[in-house]
Write a structure and sequence with these properties.
heterodimer, A: about 230 residues, mainly alpha, 2 domains, about 80% helix, globular, B: about 130 residues, 5 helices, about 0% strand
Chain lengths: ~230, ~130
C-alpha cells in the first residue's frame, strides 16, 4: 500500500511540476510560479482523496534526495561568473547585510504590531534562512522548530511570487541585484527563481543564500531579544 | 545513453561532496548547512584546478535547471499547518509578505545604487584621464 501511495505521490508531483512549467511559460504570473502552483495542486489532490502529509513523506524523502547535490552544483555558475561577481563583491556584501537586518527587523516589528505570540515572533524572525540553519537559530532565540520550517517554506514561496514584480515596479533591474535580493530573502527557492532569469542571477543568489544564513545567525540573537 | 551515464557519474560526485560537507559541519561544529559548505568546497576545487569544469557541468546544469522541483515536496508540508494558518492567516501573511518585500527592496536597491555608483566613478576616472 505504502509503495503504491508513494509511487502515485511521485507521479502527481512530477506531473504537477511539468504542468506548472507549461502553464507558467504561457501565463506568467506570481500564481503560476512552479512551487506555488504545483504545491497548491498537490495539497488539493491529497486532501480531496483523504491523504495526510504522513502518507506523502516517503515520496518527499525520495524526491528531495538530490537537493543537497543541487546546492553543491551552484558552485558551477558561480565559478563561471566569478570575474563579474568579484567586480561587484563590495555592493553585494553591503546589500546582503542591509537586506538581512531589514527583513529580520521588519518581521519582528510586524509580528509585534499584530500581537502575535513571542514563540511565533521568534520563529518568523529567521524565516529568510534555509531550513537547517533557521531551525538552529530559532532554537537559540526561543522559537519552535516545526513552526520555523513552515515559515521558511512560506517565505520561499511568497518571496519568489512577490520579488520579481516588486523589483520590476521599483526599477531594480541590475542582474546582480535581482539575484542577490531573491537569494538573500527567499533562500533556495529564491535561488531557483533567480536561476530562471539567468546564470549570473542564479549564481549570485546561491552565494547570497549562504551569506544571509551566516549574517542571520549573528544578527537574529542580538536583535530579537529586544522585542520579546 | 552515454550522456545519461555521464550525468549519473557526475551526480554521484556532487552527492559525495554534499555528504562530505555535512560530515565536516558536524565534526567541526560550523554554523553553516552542510550543502553550502559542499558548494564552497566545489568552488575551491574548480578554482585550484583540482576538478575540471567538464567533470561536473552536465549534472550541474540539469540540477540547477530543475532546482524549483526539489522545493515542491517540502512545500507540501505546509498542509500540516492548516489550522495555524486558518487561525492567524492574515497576520502571518502580512508579516511574511511585508518583511520579505522590505528585505527584497532594501537588498536590491542598496546593491544596485552602490554598483551603479562604482560604474559612475569609473566613468569619471576614464573621462579625467582622457
Amino acid at each position: 500500500m505504502i509503495v503504491l501511495v508513494t509511487l502515485l505521490s511521485i507521479a502527481i508531483t512530477v506531473g504537477a511540476y511539468l504542468l506548472s512549467r507549461v502553464v507558467g511559460k504561457r501565463y506568467p504570473s506570481p500564481f503560476t510560479t512552479p512551487v506555488f502552483f504545483s504545491t497548491a495542486i498537490i495539497i488539493i489532490i491529497l486532501l480531496t482523496f483523504g491523504f495526510t502529509f504522513e502518507d506523502y513523506t516517503m515520496a518527499k524523502d525520495i524526491m528531495t534526495f538530490l537537493l543537497g547535490p543541487a546546492t553543491v552544483a551552484l558552485a558551477v555558475p558561480f565559478y563561471k561568473n566569478r570575474e563579474i561577481i568579484k567586480k561587484h563583491s563590495g555592493p553585494a556584501i553591503v546589500g546582503i547585510v542591509f537586506g538581512t537586518i531589514s527583513t529580520i527587523i521588519g518581521a519582528v516589528l510586524l509580528a509585534k504590531l499584530l500581537t502575535l505570540s513571542n514563540e511565533i515572533l521568534a520563529s518568523v524572525s529567521v524565516k529568510s534562512v534555509t531550513v537547517p540553519v533557521a531551525i538552529e537559530i530559532s532554537n537559540i532565540i526561543g522559537g519552535d522548530p516545526a513552526l520555523t520550517a513552515a515559515f521558511v517554506v512560506a517565505t520561499g514561496i511568497i518571496g519568489t511570487m512577490l520579488g520579481p514584480s516588486l523589483m520590476n515596479l521599483t526599477n531594480i533591474d541590475h542582474p546582480l541585484s535581482r539575484g542577490l535580493a531573491l537569494g538573500t530573502i527567499s533562500h533556495g527557492q529564491g535561488t531557483a527563481q533567480a536561476a530562471t532569469e539567468g546564470e549570473l542571477q542564479g549564481a549570485i543568489a546561491g552565494v547570497a543564500m549562504g551569506l544571509a544564513a551566516i549574517f542571520t545567525a549573528i544578527a537574529a540573537p542580538i536583535i530579537v531579544p529586544f522585542f520579546i | 545513453m552515454k550522456k545519461t551515464l555521464i550525468i549519473v557519474i557526475q551526480l554521484f560526485f556532487l552527492w559525495l561532496l554534499n555528504e562530505l560537507g555535512y560530515f565536516l559541519v558536524k565534526a567541526l561544529n560550523l554554523p553553516l548547512p552542510g550543502n553550502v559548505l559542499g558548494m564552497v568546497m566545489l568552488f575551491i576545487l574548480l578554482m585550484t584546478g583540482v576538478v575540471s569544469l567538464k567533470w561536473v557541468e552536465e549534472a550541474s546544469s540539469f540540477l540547477i535547471k530543475h532546482l524549483a522541483f526539489f522545493f515542491i515536496p517540502i512545500a507540501v508540508g505546509l498542509m500540516n499547518f492548516g489550522p495555524l494558518f486558518l487561525q492567524n492567516g492574515i497576520s502571518l501573511l502580512l508579516v511574511i509578505a511585508g518583511s520579505a518585500a522590505i528585505g527584497i527592496y532594501i537588498t536590491g536597491a542598496v546593491s544596485q545604487t552602490l554598483a551603479e555608483k562604482k560604474v559612475g566613478a569609473n566613468h569619471d576616472r576614464s573621462r579625467n584621464s582622457a
